[in-house]
Specification:
Distance between the termini: 15 Å
Bound molecules: zinc ion
Radius of gyration: 24 Å
Structural class: alpha+beta
Length: 421
């Protein structure tokens, strides 16, 4: 087993100190990016963020690829499948021949749509701004870029090859960019993803997997007064499904079913012939997916026995659980030790949330996915960023990169990183 350096070699510290006067710049760029609306379905807005990032990374590498991704298929309120076009992805590569290949990823989109009232950044107090995506994850983009600036200036940069992905669709489960993450996983040894850390500064370890589904219930319309007996009520069938599905909660450890949205029916003098239901499933073990699909199938089959009723299930599991491999534990320990050295106390905590770190772990690549900024209330209009976390978090990521590069230059072999499990 190789040292992940327990302590930072002292010769790295002067390079980290290059970051100490970067606060104002990081803050200004974060606010600039946050004030570009980039809701996942606001293609133009996401592409404006991409253009900004092209400028911000022009000095980093010449190898920029702007990559269109497939549109996002969803079932609309009428039960029809429609396609939402998405913004492009930006991939930047450098030194693909270097001994250690690192994947760095941050998403450009937010959960706030183009017409959201939440568009501007305001100060809450001396240390805190409130704004859309300031923490999830525009601040994290600056953490990544500043950490890379330090690596590039250092004498050890040649040890590390970079594959950077700015993706347009993380907040909807990365439907378009997942293939780019999988592709990167065939080329890299580890991943650094710049989702926010927890509000208390800790990092995420294992994560649950997630599936998003839409159930469309088809019945038969009829006059509620004259011919009620000829109708087949789609709402009733759907409600029976929801109740039976909700009863699955608690039957298997770590698996939850959440009915999240119902739409259907119309005038009350008509037996409704259509109703849709969107729901989410979370689970802890990759094998749990089979159990869920079997149970859902049993409920649907039994309701579909009824005359004139048809339930159709769309969607699936978009992210597998992130189970920590040996290498992933080593990597997290390295980050924790470096944090300790830098005076950034951090612990590793499991979470029910998921992100691109799930995708990368599923492809066998150890990664840390909460290297971004410290803040909270993400996905709400209360989202805030502790601006004093910008420089320390950039120091943490820079130190991680430098210590890996430094160890590689000393001839350490990184068995724990390069051994596929
Ligand atoms: Zn995020």
């Amino acid at each position: 087993m190789v040292k992940p350096a327990k302590t930072l070699p002292p010769e790295l510290l002067p390079w980290l100190d290059l970051l100490n006067d970067q606060h104002d710049e990081m803050l200004a760029r974060t606010i600039e990016l946050a004030e570009i609306n980039s809701g996942s379905l606001n293609r133009d807005g996401v592409n404006r963020v991409l253009e900004k990032l092209l400028q911000l990374t022009s000095g980093l590498s010449k190898d920029h690829e702007r990559i269109p991704v497939n549109p996002w298929s969803v079932v609309n309120d009428n039960g029809e499948i429609i396609q939402h076009p998405l913004g492009d992805a930006l991939r930047i590569r450098k030194r693909p021949e270097a001994p250690l290949q690192v994947f760095l990823c941050g998403h450009m989109d937010t959960v706030f749509p183009k017409d959201s009232p939440f568009q501007k950044v305001v100060w809450l107090d001396d240390d805190t701004i409130n704004g859309p995506g300031v923490t999830d994850l525009k601040g994290g983009i600056l953490v990544m870029l500043k950490a890379l600036e330090v690596l590039e200036q250092s004498p050890w940069a040649g040890q590390i090859g970079l594959e950077i992905l700015f993706n347009p669709d993380e907040e909807i489960g990365s439907p378009g960019s997942a293939p780019l993450i999988e592709e990167a996983a065939t080329r890299v040894h580890l991943g650094m993803i710049f989702e926010p850390c927890f509000p208390d500064g800790n990092l995420a370890g294992q994560r649950k997997g997630s599936g998003n589904f839409t159930l469309v219930s088809h019945g038969k319309a009829a006059h509620a007064g004259r011919e009620h007996h000829l109708g087949r009520n789609a709402i009733r069938a759907l409600c029976d499904f929801v109740a039976a599905m909700d009863d699955l909660n608690g039957q298997q450890p770590g698996i939850t079913f959440n009915p999240g949205y119902i739409h259907g029916g119309g005038p009350t003098n008509i037996v409704p012939d259509r109703c849709i239901h969107k729901f989410n499933i979370r689970l802890e073990q990759p094998d749990d997916e089979q159990w869920c699909m079997q149970k859902l199938g049993e409920i649907i089959d039994s309701i579909n026995q009824r005359d004139g009723i048809h339930l159709a299930l769309h969607g699936g599991f978009t992210r597998k659980p992130k189970v920590l491999s040996h290498a992933n534990k080593q990597l997290l320990t390295l980050a924790k030790n470096i944090g300790h050295e830098l005076g950034i106390p951090l612990d590793i905590k499991p979470t029910g949330g998921c992100c691109d770190g799930n995708n990368l772990a599923t492809a066998g690549i150890p990664n840390i996915d909460t290297l971004g900024v410290q803040g909270g209330a993400i996905h709400s209009d209360q989202e805030y960023l502790n601006v004093r976390s910008l420089v320390p978090r950039a120091r943490l990521s820079a130190a991680l990169l430098l210590s890996l590069a430094h160890a590689s230059a000393q001839g350490d072999c990184f068995d724990w990183l390069k051994r596929k499990e």
